[in-house]
């Protein structure tokens, strides 16, 4: 029987900020948020102390009760990555990297099946040793879920570990049915969000036991092929292994950039940002020797206007900045009115391929590789001297955002 361990670093960003200040996250009111960006800034993390007060994680700053005066820590993504790398090094002290799957910056899955005999410990003791070692070396508290498959390990982490003093939960299929078959709300289960919950409620399915006992045809009609996953999970089953996840390669791929602007931009101002984003995405295409033949763009309007415009189109397979920019600007100029108030922009290059197929045309010159050489040279300079070491002139425009965004990691302050 397989043994999986899922480890989560408790309120990771907030815990790092507390540790850096020599504070106990369980006794300190602290939030991680960039309040300089907006009054409605989202808290990337809140300390466990604030959770005890009933304050929800990922809340907006203005939603925090006025009688709570938390320390406000500006996000420092580089610092969080440093801690995450150090903790990953702890995992490597115990397991081979082939048996570790990084699910997010603060969460991993580990296939511990073959390690229990080697360490002469049961799964709970092994998980406890790792958690204690993480705390000893970094000061970060961790929780763990253990299961006979990846799904049960994740559920043991998300639901069971919260109610144990050891912060460790364990589930097999039998315990899953005994403890969680009638657990509510069903949206607490991994991969069952509020949307799926509401669709289940339409059929009077409020627990995993209800789902397990439901006529499968009803679920397939409602969810299509995804019903198979839901049915398996209702029984505590998971056929996918960690090895299969690590070996998986998607048939098609895409790359995308999106951003929420700091204020409402008009048609001309947003056009500057759009050009910058095309530049960044094309550089990414060229660096990976990829070509796109389908492009999607989303322009989101301000709250006052609500909604937005999305357009998608096919094009000749290319990674040419000039061609892609012309395709996108032609559509943008045609569809967007000059008095629009724009707050969000998203661009996606789809149907990526590393082979270029070109239709010959007697009346047009074939593409030269001069532009590709230029883009690769720009990439090399950026990689060596930093993203802001070389920019297109349009990024010097006062409405440009690229210089500032190049200082971010994952859309948040890096330093």
Task: Describe the 3D structure.
With 415 residues, this protein is of the alpha+beta class. It folds into three domains: 1-169, Reverse transcriptase/Diguanylate cyclase domain (Alpha-Beta Plaits), CATH 3.30.70.270; 181-246, 5' to 3' exonuclease, C-terminal subdomain (DNA polymerase, domain 1, Orthogonal Bundle), CATH 1.10.150; 255-413, DNA polymerase, Y-family, little finger domain (Dna Ligase, domain 1, 2-Layer Sandwich), CATH 3.30.1490. Helices cover 39% and strands 19% of the residues. It is built from 16 helices and 14 strands. A five-stranded mixed β-sheet has the order 5-6-1-7-8. A four-stranded antiparallel β-sheet has the order 9-12-10-11, with helices on one face.
Would you give the CATH topology of the largest domain? Answer: Alpha-Beta Plaits
The total of helices stands at 16
Q: Work out the helicity level.
A: 25-40%
Give the CATH level 1 class of the largest domain.
Alpha Beta
Large-scale geometry: globular
How is the largest sheet built, in terms of strand order? 5-6-1-7-8
CATH superfamily of the largest domain: Reverse transcriptase/Diguanylate cyclase domain
Write down the secondary-structure element order: EHEEHEHEEHHEHEHHHHHHEHEEHEHHEE
- Sequence stretches where pLDDT stays below 50 over 5 or more residues: none
β content, as a range? 15-25%
Structural category:
alpha+beta
Radius of gyration, in angstroms, nearest whole number: 25 Å
How many angstroms separate the termini?
Answer: 45 Å
Report the CATH architecture of the largest domain. 2-Layer Sandwich
Sheet having the most strands: 5 strands, mixed
Question: Can you count the beta strands?
Answer: 14
Mean pLDDT: 88
